[in-house]
Amino acid sequence: MSANIKPAPLEKNNLHPRNKHRSRYDFPELIASCPDLSQYVAENQFHNLSIDFKNPEAVKTLNKALLKYFYTIDLWDIPEGYLCPPIPGRADYIHYVADLLAAGNDGTIPLGKNVRVLDIGVGANCIYPLIGTREYGWSFVGSDIDQKAVRSAKNIVEANALSDVISIRKQNSAGHIFTGLVNPGELFDLTICNPPFHASLKDATAGTERKWNNLGQSKAGSTLNFGGQNAELWCEGGEERFIRRMIEESAGFAKSVFWFTSLVSKKETLQGCYRALKKVNAVDIQTINMSQGQKVSRILAWTFLTQDDRKEWKTGFQKYKIII
Question: DSSP alpha helices (H): ranges in the chain?
């Protein structure tokens, strides 16, 4: 048994207060919702029910059960080798950006499908749109450069009859983020993004090996239980270059989006991003801290809208006045 492995806490107090995953997993309830999970659940060394997080099928089936039990997503699957995201952390992002929108709406979270969100890099798993639609009724456009991921996300949307609130688009240019994706005159209240973390395939492989070690097993060169294609895990220059490119391009869509946001995994990334935001004359910049277990991250948010612009956005388009 690795010294790094500790019993799961009864409550994950560091997650957002509205996060449905703050309590320890109730495996009997999850199995009742998704019977396939039963084959992967057993008592661990702490005499608690759990799964083997080194088993990719077990992790994927746990995700299916969580989505079914908490979000009434009946059908969910991803192609082999694609990123299988930790749902509690993904839900945290959605809840924190809901608070960000609430701050511009007299403290009330805007609900309903007239609140439009653009997910940059939706992935084959389509997690952010699924959670955001179920929690707040928002509508989503998910984009990706990977054709197989686009097809998988579309299949999930169609299988759960969510095509009226979630649409998936392919970004055909690897050199662009918003250009060629946001249509003329199209408006979004929010953009979200979980950018590629690593700067190279070598870095991504080393990260995989560290995660295996944290799970109590050395498995060098192996595929991580959470999966991930190259475009999901790394890009040249890592997350800082990706986010700075996003910032530069966002200036061309200054009046098309209320809040641009991105996850930032490394705090060292922030200073370069702040400089880029100053260069493009962002009006308001916010950094929102998050943590899941020992992992600390943050959301970087920026807008080009002045206070007068925001009043016009709120009253002119009536987006925030629509409720479920």
Answer: 27-33, 56-71, 87-103, 127-136, 147-159, 201-214, 230-233, 238-250, 269-279, 307-316
The distance from CA 192 to its chain's CA centroid, rounded to whole angstroms, is: 7
153 is a domain residue: yes
Residues constituting the chain: 324
**What are phi and psi for residue 48, nearest 5 degrees?**
-115, 150
Inter-residue contact 90 to 119 (CB < 8 Å): no
CATH of the domain at 222: 3.40.50.150
User: Do 249 and 175 meet the contact criterion of CB atoms below 8 Å apart?
Assistant: no
DSSP code for 14: T
Q: What is the number of domains present in the chain?
A: 1
pLDDT of residue 202 exceeding 80? no
Sheet containing 116-120: give its strands across: 166-170, 139-144, 116-120, 188-193, 257-264, 295-303, 284-292
Q: Which amino acid is at 189?
A: D
Q: Which residues of 263-292 are buried (b: 16+ CB within 10 A; e: fewer)?
A: bbbeeebeeebbebbeebebeeeeebebeb
What is the value of pTM for the model shown?
0.86
Examine the pLDDT at 225 and tell me if it is beyond 80: no
Would residue 27 count as lying in a domain? no
Looking at residues 294-301, what average pLDDT do you find?
Answer: 90
